[in-house]
Specification:
Distance between the termini: 24 Å
Shape: globular
Order of helices and strands: EHEHEHEHEHEHHEHEHH
Bound molecules: L-Erythrulose, manganese (II) ion
Largest sheet: 8 strands, parallel, barrel
Strand content: 5-15%
CATH architecture: Alpha-Beta Barrel
Number of domains: 1
Strand order of the largest sheet: 1-2-3-4-5-6-7-8
Radius of gyration: 18 Å
Structural class: alpha/beta
């Protein structure tokens, strides 16, 4: 299995420190936050070479409402900004040798469709309309990604961060409607713990359409600090012949993920989580390879 860490869990930390720590912990790769204006691809490539850590993927970043880029938004200008943004993430991925850009089809955390008042009867119509818009937007971004040989991976996100695509079954339906070989699925064990009845079964359901996966425990802490059955997940990944990266995304125990990622006094804990998560996953992998006596 290839293991990486998503660098957004390290807040604004300089990239060089992240590369150096990940090499020390024994990681095979790094995922970089989708901020094409912030990172210089030449510098990223230099660090990647120097530390022997490839960039596996780019984490698309659609914060609501600050950036006002949203693939599902009824305003065509907001959608256009999102399509241009994801095309720039594809360029960034291409420039740093990453194969995947992760896409959340509506901005995060937008919890209701635009224009929703309190009338439950209106909800399904608004959701369906935004779903169609998101499909069209992803089709446009996918045309661009295909030409660059980059995969867009749709990440279902839990209901407390989005309302549009929250489960793998929905992501598969979304994929079918987009109808592009350049679009696959990205799962996240934390979101799956909230939304999926059977996370290992979900991996089997997605099968060969699984491009990559975020990993943290049920409570988003380090692997082993919650109740996720990682043995069952690793077994399912083996069964479907998963070849993508497992990208760690564990966060210290602060309810707000973006505070947990940036609080200076938690820097050592973030490192400890990255280090022990890898050790525990590798240990589980080893135990799965042992013949049952
Ligand atoms: C991003 O990968 C993710 O999982 C989200 O919960 C963060 O917005
Ligand atoms: Mn994730």
């Amino acid at each position: 299995m290839r293991y990486a860490v998503s660098n957004w869990i390290y807040g604004d930390e300089p990239l060089e420190r992240t590369f150096s720590q990940l090499r020390r912990f024994g990681y095979d790769g790094v995922e970089i936050k989708g901020e094409p204006d912030y990172y210089d691809p030449v510098e990223v490539r230099r660090l990647s070479r120097e530390y022997g850590i490839p960039v596996t993927s780019i984490a698309g970043w659609v914060p609501w409402p600050t950036e006002s880029r949203d693939l599902a938004h009824p305003d065509p200008l907001v959608r256009e900004r999102a399509v241009v943004y994801f095309s720039r993430c594809v360029d960034f991925a291409f420039a740093v040798g990453a194969e995947i850009v992760i896409v959340v089809p509506a901005a995060v955390p937008r919890l209701v469709p635009m224009g929703f008042s309190d009338d439950p009867e209106v909800w399904p119509q608004l959701v369906e309309a935004e779903w169609r818009l998101a499909v069209e937007s992803v089709q446009r971004a996918a045309d661009y990604a295909r030409r660059r040989r980059v995969t867009l991976a749709i990440e279902p996100v839990n209901r407390f961060e989005t309302f549009l695509v929250t489960t793998a079954a929905q992501a598969l339906q979304f994929l079918d409607q987009v109808g592009s070989a350049a679009v696959k699925i990205h799962l996240d064990t934390f979101h799956m713990n909230i939304e999926e009845a059977d996370p290992a079964g979900t991996i089997r359901l997605v099968g060969s359409r699984l491009a990559s996966m975020h990993v943290s425990d049920s409570n988003r802490l380090a692997v082993g600090e919650g109740h996720t059955d990682f043995r069952a997940l690793l077994r399912a990944l083996g069964e479907v012949g998963f070849g993508g990266p497992l990208v760690l995304e564990p966060l210290p125990p602060v309810p707000n993920a973006f505070v947990a990622a940036r609080l200076q006094r938690l820097a050592d804990l973030r490192d400890t989580y990255a280090e022990v998560s890898l050790q525990r996953l590798k240990e589980l992998e080893r135990s799965l390879r042992q013949p049952v006596s």
